[in-house]
Amino acid sequence: MSASPTTAPDLAAEYSLRQTRSRAGEKVIRGILLAAAAVSVLTTVGIVLSVVIPTISFFSEIPVTDFLFGTVWTPLFANGQFGVLPLISGTIVITVIAVIVALPLGLGAAVYLSEYASDRSRRILKPTLELLAGIPTVVFGFFALEFVTQILLVRIFPGIDIFNALSAGLVMGVMIIPTIASLSEDAMAAVPSGLRDGSYALGSTKRQTAVKVVIPAALSGIVAAFVLGISRAIGETMIVTIAAGLEPRLSLNPLQGMQTMTSFIAAAGSGDLSTGSIEYKSIFAVGFLLFLLTFIMNIISIRLVRRYRQVYQ
């Protein structure tokens, strides 16, 4: 006995039911995604408010000019002074050393993995390189203090301090190499192979293709990797706390001990400061300044990425 044919009204009703279920499911998914986005936004707002409110209270007692342009930082002493320039100089010196180490090595590793390494070598080297990013930073800190300073640098610079900016910067540079190399290699891998083939067809070598074709085409991703690595170096805490010391010093000599903004926050935050005191509020003022620096760097990064981004069809 043959089944009765489905009529047009039945098909219309079934289609309407499917559409209703689809729209209901779509609304649920949209609500979940909106909630996920709202959590990240609200968390950011909460972090900003938790830093800004004590910072405003801090600047109601300490002039902004004294904070930004003062050359002595002794907030935890009696009659303390709150000139943040020693912390800024320490942060800049160590970050510059790290950048000098990480940018060429990270970009070189990315070019090798993208243009020269075989598939087998890439499958071995890239996970090994990324494994370096999983090492706890406290291990890097003790490595800088015990090995880099006391075994390597003391032989080259006999008068170097045990706690110094050079060892902290060198090891921090090694720490951010995987970040720069991995992200830069991903950006280079996204460059269409047709650009490489066209370069080879014109007689270019691998080096010429990598330098004059692949790197310019992936420049936006490389810039983003550089800025992310620099931001991570600025925000690093344990390496500078262990290897660079806790002495705020306005100096550009990397052989001396220095204190960075993050190391002060870590050291003061783990102390016995009374809540609401000016010393306690100074932690938030330094944290807010650090937030502004990284925020400005991210804005610059976004502008550079948008300027040099190339879209391929």
UniProtKB/TrEMBL annotation:
Gene Ontology terms: cellular component: membrane
An example molecular function term from Gene Ontology annotations: phosphate transmembrane transporter activity
Domain ABC transmembrane type-1: 88-301
GO BP annotations, alphabetical order: phosphate ion transport
Pfam families, per the entry: BPD_transp_1
Gene3D superfamilies in UniProt: MetI-like
Ranges that cross the membrane: 28-53, 84-110, 131-156, 162-183, 213-234, 283-305
Keyword Membrane: yes
Subcellular location: Membrane
Keywords: Membrane, Transmembrane, Transmembrane helix
Membrane topology: Multi-pass membrane protein
Presence of keyword Transmembrane helix: yes
InterPro entries according to UniProt: MetI-like, MetI-like_sf, Phosphate_PstC
Protein name: Unannotated protein
